[in-house]
Amino acid sequence: MSGVVGHAFLALTLGAEAIRRSGAGGSMVFIGSNSGLGAIKGQAAYGSAKAALHHLVACLGPELGPHGIRVNAVAPSFIRNPALSRVLSEQEWDEVASLIPLGRPAYPREIAGAVLFLISDLASHVTGQTLPVDGGLSRILQLPSLPWNRD
Fold first, then answer.
1. Around 90, how many Cα atoms within 13 Å sit in the side-chain half-sphere?
2. Where are the domains of the chain?
3. pTM for the full model?
4. Which fold has domain 3-136?
5. Catalytic residue among 46, 84, 99, 100
6. Is 107 a catalytic residue?
7. Which of 59, 81, 93, 146 is the most buried (most CB within 10 A)?
């Protein structure tokens, strides 16, 4: 097992054991992706790895819950950060924004906010979940132009 899932599995194995031994309980949050929530053209390998991570979280949340350990993930889509800004032009950012129901990509602080929520006591009854933080993008169903969805 390697890559995204291997690293998460190792973190869960070692981290969960350390948390369990402490007796204090705790929370582990992983960064998934919108690409792991559904089929996206050109994202087969990356999306499959992230889908596996989401499934690992779904399986281990209930398994580790009796030990007081919560396991969750955040699944962002487009994040307006320096790495993506080196790849996307302003015109491409505008195209991305037009696809997102909230009208813009996320900022890193918004992803961090979701992680902070999941590790906080505010989420003390949340485990085994993947939280999309994507401006509603994962809830959009793309259809061809059909009589009932033409403008």
1. 0
2. 3-136
3. 0.89
4. Rossmann fold (3.40.50)
5. 46
6. no
7. 93
